[in-house]
Each structure stands twice: as C-alpha cells, then as structure tokens.
Amino acid sequence: MPELAIWSIFFLPIISFLVISFLLRPFLNDKPRLSGYLAVLSIAGSLLLSFWVLSEVINAPGHRLSLPDHEWAMVGNLTIRVGLIVDSLTAVMLIVVTLVSLMVQIYSQGYMHGDPGYHRYFAFMSLFTGSMLGLVMADNLIMLYVFWEMVGLCSYLLIGFWYHRPAAAAAAKKAFIVTRFGDLGFLLAILFVVFQTDPPTFDIERLHSLAVAGTLGGTAITLLALGVFAGAMGKSAQFPLHTWLPDAMEGPTPVSALIHAATMVAAGVFLVARMFPVFEASPQAMTTVSVIGGVTAVFAATMGLVVYDMKRVMAYSTISQLGYMMLGLGVGAYAAGIFHLFNHAFFKALLFLGAGSANHTTGTFDMRFMGGLRRYMPWTFATLTVASLSLAGIPPFSGFWSKDEILLETLHKNQALFWLALVGVFMTAFYVFRMMFMAFGGKYRGGASAEHVTQHSAHSHALHESPPVMVVPMLVLGVLSVISGVVNLPWSFGLPPHWLADFLGGEAAGFDVNLAGTSSLVAALGIFLAYAIYSARWLSAERVGKLFGPIYTLVYRKYYFDELYEDLIVTRGLYRNLSFALDWFDRNIIDNVVDGMAWLGRNVGRPVSRVQTGQVQVYGIGISLGILLILAAFIIFGR
Amino acid sequence: MRTVDLYYLSPEISLSILAFAVIILDLFVQRKGWLATVSLLGLFVPTALTLALWGVRTTAFNGFLIVDEFSLFFKLLFIVVAALVILASQDYVSKFPRMQGEYYALVLLAAVGMMLMAASGELITIYIALELNALSLCALVCFLRDARSSEASLKFLLLSAISSAVMLYGMALVFGLTGSTSLRDIAAGLVPLKRLLDEPALLLGLTLIVAGFGFKISTVPFQMWVPDVYEGAPTPITAYLSVASKAAGFAVILRVFYIAFGGMDLDWGMLFAVLSAVSMTIGNIVAIAQSNIKRMLGYSTIAHAGYLMAGLASVSALGIGGEFLGPSGVLFYLGAYAMTNLGAFIAVIAISNKTGSDLIADYAGMARRTPALAFALAFCLISLVGIPPTAGFVAKIYIFNAAVQNGLVWLAIIGVVNSVISAYYYINVVRVMYLRPAASEEAVPSTMALRSALLISVAGVFLLGILPGPLMRLANIAVSVLPVP
Q1: Which of A613, A627, A629, A639 is the best residue to mutate to test the B interface, defined by the most B CB atoms within 10 Å of its own CB?
Q2: Secondary structure in 3-state letters for A398-415
Q3: Closest alpha carbon within chain A to B417
C-alpha cells in the first residue's frame, strides 16, 4: 500500500486543523457548521485508511509493513530519522482512535451546537486526533515524544476550552503541569538512550532488538523502562499522578470521552505496550508496572464509590480501568492489556457520551438532581446500561472477556495483586450501577434548577431525548460495547480463538471457568448492593456512609491528595522555600551578572567604538595593523 | 575556449543580459513597478540554468571557472538573496526620481560578480569577480545621494580599494613563488616548499590574501568600514551586503584555502580560530552599545562572521559519512543566516519606511502598532541569538559541533558565551517593541511586496529550524568537491 496513504492517516486531521484555523475561522466565521463537517470528513477518511492498513497488516508477513524512513536532522554523528512503524499494535490503535474519534466528533455536532467556539473546538479536536494518530505510528522516540507533547498540549487546550470559567482554566493548567512531571521522566529516558546506545539510536524497533539481545541490559534497561513508565504514569493518570484526571471533567463532555477512551490516557498504556520488549527485559520494571497498576485500579475505584458528579464517577472509573491495563501489561499479559484498552475505548466513550446526553437535557452532572431519566431518555438509558454491564464485567459483554484475561494472568503471576484486583471488580460494578440507579431510576429530582434553587420545581416536561446526531453515535458504540470482545474470544466465533492475541504476537491467556464464574459473581454482588442501596433502598446510603465514618471522609476528600500536593508541596515546600531561595538568587546573582553585562557594554563597548572615528585614514591604518598582527602571530606562534 | 564553456557560464551570462535588459526597459516603461517584476521573473532563467547544471563537475575556460555543486550551491543562494532584496527594494526604490533601472541592474550585476567569485578557480578571475561585485555595491551604497550615503559609498570605495591592493600584492607574491595563478597549480607549486615559514615571501603573500578576503567577510581587524557603510547605505543594500557579499567571501576562502593552500604545512585553521574568537567577541560587545538598529545589525554581522569562521577553523572534523563538517557547517550557516538577516532587515525597512527612523528607541510599542512585523522581527532576532525553533539555532549547533569534533572546545565555549552576550542586545529590541509604550498609536502599513518577502524569509527561518535535513544534505554534497587538506 502506498506510503503516502499511511502518512495521510494523521495528515488528514492535521490538514483539517490547519484549514479550520487558517481558512474557515478567519474567513467563514459565520458558517461554523463547515468546520464540523470538515473535521468529521477528515477523520472518516482516516478511519477508512485505517481499515485498509489493518487488512494489509493482517496479510503482511510477520504482521508488519516495512516503510522507508526519512532523514530529519544530523547533529554530528547522530542522525535522527523519522518514519512510521506499522505493525499489529499500530493497526489496532489506529482503529480504536479513529473509530472513537469519529463517533465523538459526530456526537459533538449536536452537543456543541451553538457554542461560540465551534470552529476552535473542531480545530483542536482534529489536532488532538491527528497528534494521537501520529503518536501511535511514530517509529522513533523523538517523533513519538513530539506527538506525545502535542497530545498534552491539545488536552490542555480542550480541557480549558471554556477558559472564561476559572475552574476550567485551573483544570487545564493542572492537567498540563501534573502530566509534565511524568513527561520529565520520559524525556530523561530519551536522553539516556543517547548515552546507552552506540551508535546513538532512537529507533524503537532497534531498541527492542537491543533489549531482546541483552546488549542493553542490567540497570540501564531498568532505568530506561522506569523513565518511560514515568511518562506513561502521567498521561495515564496512574497513582500518584492521578489527580489531574477528575478535574479534567471541566472540558466539554465529548472532549472527556475522547481523552478517556482513545487519545490522552490511552497514550500512556500504548507507550508501555510499544516499549514492551524493553520492559520485559527488566523484571524490576515489570513489577513496578504491575504494582502501580494494581494499586491504582483499587485506589481509584474507592473514590468512584462516593462522588456525586456523574462525570467524576467516570473519571475515577477510567483511572481504575487504566490501572487494570497497566496491571495486565505488568504481569506480562501484553495482549490482554491491549484487548482491554480496545474494549474499554468503546464502552467508556459511550459512558461519557451518555453522561453528556443526560447533562444536555438536565443541565447538571450531579446525580442527586437527576433520577427517573429512564422514562424520558430511553435510548440513552439503553445504551448506557449496555456500557455499564460491559464495564462491570458481566458476560457476554466485551469488558468481561478482557478483564477476565487480565485477572487470570495476574492469578498466575501474583496472588496478592489478584485479590486486590478482584476487590476492584466488586467496586467497579457497585459504582457504575450506583450511577445508573441514581440517574435513571426513581423520580426526577429537578436538574440544574434544583441544584441552584432550594425549592424543588421539577421541570420534567422539559426533559427530552437527545437529537439523533447524538443518539446514533451512542448506538454504534453500544453495539461495539457488546461485540468488541469477539476479536479475542477463547472459542472460535467467526474468528479463530484468541485471534487478537495471535495478531498482536502475545500469548493467549486461556480461559478458566472457575475464575470467570467467580469474577462474574463478584460483579453481580456489586450490582446487587447498588440496587439494595439506591433502588430498593433496603439500606440507607447515609447510614452506610456514617458506618464507615472517617474512612468515608478520607475517600470523599480524595485521600487529601490535592491538599498534599497544593498546600504542602507546592505552597509550603516549593513556594515558601525554593521559590524564595531562587528569587534571592535571581535578584542577587543573575541580576548582577546582567547588570555587569550592561556595564561591560557601556564601558567596554563605548571605548572600542570610539576607535570608530569615521575617519577613513584610521580605518586604513587599522587594516595595515591587522596585517602586521597576523604576520607577527604567524612568525611567533607558527613554529 | 570551447562552445560548451558558454553553457557552463550560462547562469552568469543570462543574469548579465537580464541586468542590461532592465536598464533598457527603464528607458521605455512609465510604470517603474514593472522593473522589479521583470527582474524577479527574469531570475527564473539563471535559476533554471543553474539547476540544469547540477551534477556537472568540470572546469571551463582552461580551468578559470569551476562548475561543481559547490559553486552551484552558492549561485542558487545568491539568486535567492537577490530576489528577496529586489522584492524588498520595490517600495524603497519608488522614492527615487531617476535611475530605478540602474538600481535593479546593479543588484543583478553584483550577483553576477558573486556567482563568479564562487565559481572561479584562478586568482585573477577571483580578483575581477570581486571587483565587479565591489564596484556594483559601491554604486548602490550611494544611491540615496544624501550626505550619509555618499560618505558611506566613498569609504567603501577607498577601503575596498586598499584591501584589493593588499590582496593583489599577496596574489603577486604567491604567483612569483609558484609560477601560476591557477589554484590547482599553486598547490602543486607549493609542494617543493616544505615549510612555509622558511619562505617569508609566501607567508607575507598568504597574510595579504587573508587580509583582502577578511575585508569581504568583515572580520576583525578588517571590519571598521562595516558600521559606517551599513548605516549610510539604503537598507536593502545593507541587507545585501551583510548576507550575499559575506557568503561570496566565504566561498572564495573555502576554495582558495582548501585547493591552493590545503596541503601546506601551516596551521591556517588556527589562524581562523583566533580571528573567529576575536571577531565574535568584539562584534558582540560593541553591538551592545549601539542605539541605531542598522549599526547594531552591522556589528552583529561582524560577530556572525566570527561564528562562521569557527567552521573554517574546523579543518579536520569529519562526519560519519566522511563529509567535512566545518565547511558544510559554513554553507548551512550561510543559508540560515541569509534567511534570518534578510528577514530582520526587511522588517527594519518596513518599519522605517513609516517612521523614518532607525533608532532602536523608536521601535517602542511596535508590537501594538504592527503586530505582524514586530513578530517577524522578533522571530528573526531570536534566530540570530540561536534559540530554537529557528534556523539560527540549528546552524550554531552544527558549526559549534564541528569545532568540538575538531578539538576546538575552547572556541565552542567562547561561541556559546558570545551567543549569550548577543542575546542581550537582540532581545533588547524585542523588549522595546513589546514592553515599551508607543510614542504614537498609528499603524505601520507595509506593501504586499515587503510582506511577501518577509513571509518568505520568516518561513525559511522556521522551516530550516525544524527541518534542516535537506539543506544539510545539499551543503554536504557541495563541500564534497573540496579536496582533503
């Protein structure tokens, strides 16, 4: 397949970004619809090309297409080349990113209708998707890092899309700064590579072969892997860099859907998968990944149990699910981790779009003011139920298959992490159905108006299902949430058993009926408890909350992580001490140096320029003196 | 002379014809704007002829002219620079009541001189080409015909005459000792003279030649004419002088020293290293004290001649493919510097067209009065400092890397320190434009021609900053024709 076609996959959205920003927005500002259509068109083109790539990769020997790479820059003996890597992992990611992005952008046509920043929105969304596509196709660390940062930049721009709202601006800043800590690790890892390889190479496949051959080994590979993982932790919001993701809810809901399903957070998991041979070569790094993943999975789930904001439930759920993916990768279940990423992308995008749909009509995200939406929004309710069952891991929905593979693999590798993960399964089922029962069950509790005015004035007559442009993408994602597990079933079902695992070149995890039964049962228990508390009301939520008293407060306050970071580390540690020290240094040392330069300029520059009399004779003498000086230097030093 | 030699000389011939055609056209057309258009369109002919010659490696006119990628690289550079200068001059020239045709013709003829300089393989040809260039520029410098401009022109004429005389002395001595003016034969003739220092006449000859070329590239201690001439000349011509004339000087130096004096037992690399360090330091320090932006940019070109000479000094630095890092660094730097400095000067032209002042203080508040121009100027100044993502950054990395590979770590350190010093006065202009309140809020309009010239150079600065590979490869191919010293 022609190389240009593959490059076009990410060129198309980027061209769309350029056209919207530099042509449509300045010249056709009164026709915002155009940019929406262009964005959808370009990403649809990318999707078609991605399917083409997938079919080519399936048929290619070794499941990879070899493409020529191009010289980008030479610095001394270091030549940096850019090119694309198109293997099974890339092909799967391309499908995930383009498919989810397409659905989200179609949905946005309705959701963002009438927003004054319509052009800007679709320009950034295109750039966001384009950057992510570039990221999954980059064949070397430098190019990957460029797109990695672009993804970070776009998330900043989109989370802060409604920048006039202080909360949105703060959330954007937080997302950018917190992920920066991880990126620092990634950057150090890239620089580290230069010193550890000879000749220096950034080529990912070459690093793989160096890691497999053991040329790059020992402490070096552990440090490299940990640096890369630090970057992944930031982007994928792993503990303890998770604090930015819940706040990122301040962006428009479709943006959250994109961030949580296909672009930003998936980048971290993808990076670990992309560098997997490097991780595999270091047992310490693998252990770190699995422990961080397992801890994050449960830690985030606990916070999901108590929040009332529908989108924040989703946010903690994403952190937790990303934890499962990391856990899967960490215990060596490469295929299972990617399989879960694949399934999660669809049902999580759907959950967000559903939350957005509920918000579209009620005007609030607070579940305490929703309720009863099942009657008014049947499509939203139906699709969300599918997504929730999938997230909870109930067979035969897609989430079940991938979560089960991760659990099985964890059971083989690390018992303690397995039990932790199983607790996470219970919590997941509980919090997602808590959300379903609170928002869709019972009676309507007033929406946005009730949130701000104390008196209950139910505007239930105003409630309505979202327009088709929003519902259709949800339906598509709903269908995908049911069937996307098909690609890696333990039995033959249209496709050979464990097709995805074979395709990705990982080991098939197998299937254990006992484990599958246990995890389904645990999930069912979680759903039942949610039903008992929030629908049947056999138990009072308040009573349960009081029962756990201090623990409830601790969890509800997000374990005080924000306070720890902002008050203790930033304000007390950094601001009061480091900043004051730096300020002193700046004032006394730097300023003096700069003043010294100015002094030099005045007092040395002036006399020297005074030789510049303007007299041509002096200039002539200058030339003669110069010649004599050079001659003398030759004679004296030349020997 | 063979007929095919004419083909090898065709870029220069077509350019000369174009120059005369513009003068003749001047007699007939009323709308003088056509002159610039014809000059610009006419430049496509030498461009096409130069491109057609790419890949040919031969000599013409009994070895007087060399046709190879090295000379073609410079020819293309000169054509691009001349085109941008013409584009930037249009507005400026329209103020002259007479002789607009001559202006464009002289710009083109100066380019012919420079192209010949880059192509010549023999001392007398070098001298003639150099004079063709110098005299054309000399006439251009006095085009404003006011006191400053005439004074600048006279100084330029006198000092370039002195330096030419000095250089001719040197050439005569070298000819006397080797019996030839052809660069290749000089190299052969020098073989019996084992050590240069045993032959004082040759040493003197070499020094005098260096002095002559040093004047062209405006290195310390042959730089004193620079600020006066730069300040007095019409600004487009200042830009032309600072970019193209310097590039031509470097082309000749590379040719002469690699071909004729390459095999000599004398460390001329060290000579250039010392000149480089002195030049960049003096240029930068004196630039700090300037209040006129044209004078400041004048001193800045002295400093940049210093950075460039670090590439000349890196004689034995070889890349992985065995390419000469030093000379290819010089070529790349010249390309990057051409775009950057032209951009800066074009912005200065546009601004002073309106304000009539070249004082840095009068740039106050430009960021509000003309955001696009101020941004372009700031971008070019940042490139001159050598901050990414600009061409200047890549060029400096490239050339300092060559110096380090050559063992000249001290020179690289001096270069980096100098870059920091230069930031002081470059960024000062940015500070004035963005932070100082404007004296008037009047907008600064600019013509389409100026804006497109500026856009081209700024785009060039940016593109070379993020995608330096293609120009680097061209530079490597161009220097591959030089013999190993």
Answers
A1: A627
A2: HHHHHHHHHHHHHHHHCH
A3: A597
CA distance A122 to chain B (A): 26
Contact between A309 and A367 (Cβ < 8 Å) = yes
Residue A75 parent element (H or E): strand A70-75
Q: Among all residues of chain B, which has the CA nearest to that of A71?
A: B469
Give, for B80, the enclosing helix (H) or strand (E): helix B69-93
| SS3 track for A341-375 | HHHHHHHHHHHHHHHHHHHHHHCCCEHHHCCCHHH
State the nearest Cα–Cα gap between A596 and chain B, in angstroms: 11
C-alpha to C-alpha distance for B7 and B12, rounded to whole angstroms: 10
CB atoms within 10 A of CB B315: 24
Q: What is the DSSP letter of A61?
A: G
| Amino acid at site B206 | L
Contact A622 B398 (CB under 8 A): no
Q: Measuring CA to CA, which residue among B248, B225, B228 is closest to residue B78? A: B248
CB B147 within 8 A of CB B207: no
Q: Which are the contacts of B459, defined by CB distance < 8 A and separation ≥ 6?
A: none
ipTM of the complex: 0.84
**Residue B144 to residues B94, B150, B154, B265, B450: CA-CA distances in angstroms?**
12, 8, 13, 48, 19
Kind of pairing between the strands at A78-82 and A86-87 = unpaired
Both structure tokens of B41: 């369109």
CB A402 within 8 A of CB A319: no
Does pTM surpass 0.90? no
Q: A55: which 2 tokens?
A: 């079919």
> Smallest CA–CA separation between B345 and chain A, in Å?
22
For residue B208, the chain A residues in CB contact (below 8 A) are 627
Mean pLDDT of chain A: 80
Q: Which amino acid is present at B469?
A: G
Instruction: Specify burial of residue A614 (Cβ count, 10 A radius: 0-12, 13-18, 19+).
Output: exposed
**pLDDT tens readout for residues B264-305:** 766 778 888 999 999 998 898 888 888 899 999 999 999 999
Task: Please give the residue of chain A at the shortest CA–CA distance from B403.
Answer: A76
Please give the structure tokens belonging to residue A638: 């030349």
pLDDT digits (tens, 9 = 90+) for B73-123: 999 999 999 999 999 998 888 877 778 889 999 999 999 999 999 999 999
A321 Cβ neighbours under 8 A, 6+ residues apart: A297, A340, A344, A348, A391, A428
3-state secondary structure of A2: coil
Nearest to B106 by CA among B61, B64, B81, B138: B138
Give the sign of the dihedral formed by CA A3, CA A6, CA A12, CA A14.
negative
